[in-house]
């Protein structure tokens, strides 16, 4: 079941503009495209760039980093059919814009104490600075 969370007032985001909003600890890119709202995960599934800073052409978000494209309606990527960004439903009711998320999305596991690794178990993993084979990329 979806929970619709209030993110802004209708009219706060003019047509052609985007905003990055946080809903239950996740960043969502909200677009007003030709007067209709669309919401997708702000994190580009390619390499994590903020899709909310991208531009839109013909109903397609263009990622600001490598210009991969994602459909506003489906989240699908025409360059790579295996890649898709999460699309969230948006409702506007009584002048309020709400984004729908799964009821348990963003909830953290609840326990008596925070999970913490005891100091005795902590160890340092060296950071790989250069590839062993210089022709190889990380
Ligand atoms: S990070 Fe978005 S296309 Fe590469």
UniProtKB/TrEMBL annotation:
Identify the residues that the record assigns to the Rieske domain, covering every copy. 5-99
What are the UniProt keywords, alphabetically? 2Fe-2S, Iron, Iron-sulfur, Metal-binding
Task: Give the required cofactors.
Answer: [2Fe-2S] cluster
What organism does the UniProt record list as the source? Nitrospina gracilis (strain 3/211)
Write out the GO MF terms.
Answer: 2 iron, 2 sulfur cluster binding; metal ion binding
Put simply, this protein is called: Putative Rieske-type ferredoxin
Signal peptide, first to last residue: none
Note the SUPFAM superfamilies from the entry: ISP domain (SSF50022)
Q: Domain of life, per the record? A: Bacteria
Give the family this protein belongs to, as stated in its UniProt record: Belongs to the bacterial ring-hydroxylating dioxygenase ferredoxin component family.
UniProt cross-references to PROSITE patterns, sorted A to Z: RIESKE
